[in-house]
Design brief:
Strands 1, 2, 3, 4, 5, 6, 7, 8 and 9 form a nine-stranded antiparallel sheet that branches. Helix 1 runs antiparallel to helix 3 and helix 4 packs antiparallel against helix 6. It contains six helices and nine strands, in the order E-E-H-E-E-H-H-E-E-H-E-E-H-H-E. The longest helix has 21 residues. It has about 230 residues and is an alpha+beta fold. The protein has a single domain, classed as Alpha-Beta Plaits (2-Layer Sandwich). This is ABM domain-containing protein. InterPro entries: Dimeric_a/b-barrel.
């Protein structure tokens, strides 16, 4: 399995909307004709991201293997149209990091087969389900300790945080020589997110993270209605 969680640096809100429109066309074809793409979703800022501009967007894509991305997904007409537009239309400030992640076997991508990227059209943008991405840089020699902490936390989330639709701990492929950890999580409501971060088990994990990391970047996102999760 191969995962990418790109942070795309759109140049402006106008360019963000142009980029999302291109991605929306890709998502339709991906869902209809790419069965080896397990999940494909793109999100916009929850307007609470001091570390990145609010006109940036975030993606989350899961493929059965590298070929499903390189030989199938990137060969579709809408994908090629997007690639042909990004440069000439000056949509992005810089190239997007598309390095592969892989599951660590900790946590879960979906709870009970539900589509965690589904959107309720009756909710306004600020009330849509919340996506949270933690990018963690462990101190040297501390990665395995952190993963054990996340394993305990993930068990708690699975059993008790029913409003957490996804809690998945990922790592970069060994070939990149990057010991970073990425935690991708989704919450039905902001209230469920607050419940998650304020529980005792999360407090214990947070203390261990602070002791054993060089840096942590946490960003928050809202569903755009683009994409799907699970097959």
């Amino acid at each position: 399995m191969r995962v990418i969680c790109p942070l795309s640096a759109c140049c402006s809100y106008e360019k963000r909307d142009q980029f999302l429109a291109l991605l929306s066309d890709i998502a339709v074809v991906t869902k209809e004709s790419e069965p080896r793409t397990i999940s494909y979703g793109w999100f916009q800022s929850a307007k609470d991201n001091p570390e990145v501009p609010n006109h940036y967007v975030r993606g989350f894509e899961v493929y059965e293997d590298e070929s499903a991305l390189v030989d199938v997904h990137r060969m579709s007409g809408p994908y090629k149209k997007m690639r042909a537009s990004v440069g000439p239309d000056k949509i992005l400030e810089r190239p997007t990091d598309l390095r592969f992640l892989q599951p660590t076997s900790i946590g879960f991508m979906t709870r009970g087969g539900m589509d965690v990227f589904e959107i309720d059209d009756h909710l306004n943008e600020d009330n849509r389900s919340l996506v949270v991405v933690q990018e963690i840089r462990p101190k040297q020699g501390s990665k395995q300790k952190l993963l054990k902490d996340f394993e305990v936390l993930a068990c708690h989330v699975q059993n008790f945080d029913k409003g957490t639709a996804c809690f998945w701990v990922l790592e970069y492929l060994e070939e990149y020589s990057d010991n970073g950890i990425v935690v991708f999580s989704t919450f039905d409501t902001d209230t469920e997110y607050q419940k998650h971060i304020n529980c005792q088990k999360m407090e214990e994990t947070r203390n261990n993270i602070n002791e054993n990391t060089d840096s942590v970047r946490t960003t928050k996102w809202r569903y755009t209605g683009i994409g799907f999760s699970g097959r």
